[in-house]
Amino acid sequence: MGNVGSTVLVTATVASTRYLSEHGAFPDRVVGTMDYLRAHPGQFVVLVAVLTAALLLPLVTVQSTIDEYDAGIAGLYLGFLGYRIVYGIVRPVPRGARERYHAE
Question: pTM for the whole thing?
Fold first, then answer.
């Protein structure tokens, strides 16, 4: 996949995940897993460390993958920024997200 394709794929994935999260549309099993990880921060840290190592291993072993990583990082930024422009500037932030962030 080319750099533009990778960027578009990551952008769409990030934006749709944010949408599902802030609109409370995740399936119950995903919500249950997120609640479990919030209640067990040690396991969350281990999960993040394992996933980070798994994602960075190809970058360390095969240097030619750096362009794909650059495209992925650009997609992350574009996805978060684009979603927040739509739901924050153009349209209001969803009520579920406001309640969750202000309740803490």
Answer: 0.69
pLDDT tens per residue, range 49-84: 999 999 888 888 887 888 888 888 899 999 999 998
Question: How many Å apart are CA 67 and CA 60, to the nearest integer?
Answer: 13
Name the residue range of residue 21's domain. 3-35+66-103
CA distance 60 to 62: 6
Buried b vs exposed e over 2-41: b needs ≥16 C-beta within 10 Å?
eeeebbbebbeebbeebeebbeeeeeeeeeeeeeeeeeee
Indicate whether 61 belongs to any domain: no
**Number of separate domains in the chain:** 1
3-state helix, strand and coil shares in percent for the chain, rounded to the nearest 5: 85, 0, 15
* Residue 83 forms part of a structural domain: yes
